[in-house]
Amino acid sequence: MSAVSDTLPRQDSDAAPGTRRAKLRLLVSDLLGYGLVSAAALALDWGLLVTFVKAGMNYQIAAATSFTLGMLLAYAGSVLFVFRGRRERSFGAEALGFFAIGFLGLALNQGLLFGFVHFAGLPVALAKAPTAGCVFSFNFLARRTLLFVSEAAGVR
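Now predict its structure.
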């Protein structure tokens, strides 16, 4: 029986790029890398948001400005460290897609901040916490699914 099982092909080989295990490993790697890059972008975003609001800027304008600057950092980190080697589009198309998703994330950011500040009564700095979690999830899933895929390698 052992001789027969040794000759059968393995269904879940770690070496095959299209396997569930390889896809899961890549997903976890992407999530961790994107998480680190996003943490740096969030630190910039949050720090600038608090600074701008303390300086007297309207929190919605401050949030849009700080989010956009954080998004620039997230883009650089994503293409340099997280999703490198998986460019399926031209640089221009990829950047356009990245920022289009980012601006959808900005709209989500603005709406959630408004809701947490005006309806839940949270201070802006505290309202940023649940907002950041929601926007991170949206941006990661959209960017990984729509932009940084490699169909040739069988990886999504």
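The helical segments are 2-7, 20-54, 59-82, 91-119, 124-146.
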